[in-house]
């Protein structure tokens, strides 16, 4: 409707206050209301930029009822900006309910680009960026967690996981026992003073982060690099090598893996590759 307000989805910094776009600041300055996951948290950001606006809380415990109220506000011609404590709203943060309802009601939804820990970690991981999946937090419930870990075993795309400091060691242990050893980057405190990247494999990460550590973490894991049995059973040795190389492996790594799959000496696979 012409006189309805617009729902803006506004990303906010994930640590460094400067990581907010000019457009987001303008939207925060011009909307009628800001719906925030934690108003005490958002007020600090607004104060930093000299913005003063009516704030209402919108968090996981009042998502349903608040969404209805926000829709009414929008239909009264007022514009609303949705923010979470950090990063993109709706990405492991509240907002899904409101956006769905707004779309169903025909209200205009405008997403603004900006920071999110998942992509920030991914691009600095050195792990394949062409295809990836985002898992957010692994479920705490044992059965659900096991189900997701089982699914991730065969996931070929890069995997991005969020974790809190007190569950980091357990999650690394669970990942190692389910997925086996593979490349990982543990990104810690992105955009903050103590930002660091631990580029290693799951086994070393497990040792390194065995004690409780401080900070916020994103785990970026290599997808499953092993060709499925049925994928290589009908292949020639050379095509089998090429299959591994097409996933980004060097020739020598590919030869090592083919030798292991086929239970052949490496030298024989190597000879095959050279002969052809
Ligand atoms: N909406 C946020 C986003 O777009 O990234 C995510 C919110 S989620 C509740 C919080 C989790 O995101 C943290 O536990 C951590 O896994 C990750 N995270 C957020 N900020 C981070 C940072 N500066 N460094 C590393 N991880 C971060």
Q: Explain this structure to me?
A:
The chain is α/β, with parallel strands linked by helices and 276 residues long. It folds into 3 domains: 7-115, 3-Layer(aba) Sandwich (Cobalt-precorrin-4 Transmethylase, domain 1); 118-221, Tetrapyrrole methylase, C-terminal domain (Methyltransferase, Cobalt-precorrin-4 Transmethylase, Domain 2); 232-275, no CATH class. It is 42% helix and 17% strand. It is built from 12 helices and 10 strands. The protein has helices at 22-30, 39-48, 63-75, 96-105, 117-123, 142-153, 168-179, 202-208, 229-233, 237-246, 251-262, 266-275; strands at residues 7-9, 33-36, 55-57, 80-83, 109-111, 132-137, 158-163, 183-188, 196-201, 217-221. The strands form 2 sheets. Strands 3-2-4-1-5 form a 5-stranded parallel β-sheet, with helices on both faces. Strand 6 (132-137), helix 6 (142-153) and strand 7 (158-163) form a beta-alpha-beta unit. Helix 3 (63-75) runs parallel beside helix 4 and helix 10 packs across helix 11. The longest helix has 13 residues, at 63-75. The protein is elongated. The chain starts with 6 loop residues before the first strand and ends with a helix. Residues 14-15, 84, 86-88, 91-93, 116-118, 162-164, 187, 189-192, 216-218 line the site of S-adenosylmethionine.
